[in-house]
Amino acid sequence: MRLSRAKGASGANPTARPRPPVRGRPNARSGRRPAARRPRRWGRWLGYGLPVVLLLGTGGLIWHSGILDRAASAAGEATLQLTGDLGLKVRDVLVEGRSHTESDQLLGLLGVRRGMPILAFDPGQARERLDQLPWVADAEVERRLPDTLFIRLIEKTPLALWQHDGKITVIDTRGDVIPGVSPGRFSKLLLVVGEDAAPHAAELIEMLNGEPDLAGKVTAAIRVGDRRWNLRLDGNIDVRLPEDGAPAAWSRFAQMVRQEHLLDHDVAVVDLRLPDRLIVRTSRGGVPPLRAKGQET
């Protein structure tokens, strides 16, 4: 039996492989050429990026060299000098509240001079410098255009002399040491003694001032065990205050002094630690306990 060929079949060898199309030639059926390869773009990126890299590198070198800072500083100094030439210069320095701070020390620390451009003076920096002075607790600094600097000082108040660790220093109302101050300048202040006496000195002095006539006789106060005070009157009488109720005991003692003239006698020790009586000892020996007037035995 013979196999018949299908109609329309060519006489070519059915097992023959078709030839691949030739690149670049038009397709016999579509008439279009195949897509060409895209050109590489690294050259375009190099053309754009190289100037940017050079620009950034040059800017970095200028920045690190300080050229811009020096130029800006020179321009700023020229501007300040111009404002001074226009009349904005320092002619007066007004200081309010200065009692203990030396004027030469104050002006030297501020670095201000007559005739300098007033806008070159920095009030914020000046205040920070003033806080370094031993007597200054706080300060306000202002530029009052066109030619005046105004400074208001709040100085520390010397409260007492503090004896501890074998030395004597001046303390303020907060119990802080005022550095560089000679105790000899304030020899009339109350002497407080003890490691923890300074923080409690303001409270003690406020209590003593409640009896001003008697407070003037107190020359020293010794802190005992961070609990209570022993007072020294007229340099030779010891008054022992209680741990609790010290203000009431102090008032009671003042009443006895006024009514019984207690300090006119040869008194060495007055013990106020008992709430209902004063125990008095003389330099020659003990005496019976004394009661405040009006109390029953």
Automatic annotation (TrEMBL):
Main location: membrane
Protein name: Cell division protein FtsQ
PANTHER family assigned: CELL DIVISION PROTEIN FTSQ
Described function: Essential cell division protein.
Transmembrane segments: 45-63
Family the UniProt entry places it in: Belongs to the FtsQ/DivIB family. FtsQ subfamily.
One Gene Ontology CC term in the entry: plasma membrane
Region (Disordered): 1-36
GO biological process: cell septum assembly; FtsZ-dependent cytokinesis
One Pfam assignment: POTRA_1
Domain POTRA: start-end pairs: 88-156
This protein's UniProt keywords: Cell cycle, Cell division, Cell inner membrane, Cell membrane, Membrane, Transmembrane, Transmembrane helix
Source organism of the structure: Tistlia consotensis USBA 355
InterPro entries: Cell_div_FtsQ/DivIB_C, FtsQ, FtsQ_C_sf, POTRA, POTRA_FtsQ_type
Compartment(s) where it occurs, according to its Swiss-Prot or TrEMBL record: Cell inner membrane; Membrane
UniProt membrane topology term: Single-pass type II membrane protein
Gene name of the record: ftsQ
Domain of life: Bacteria
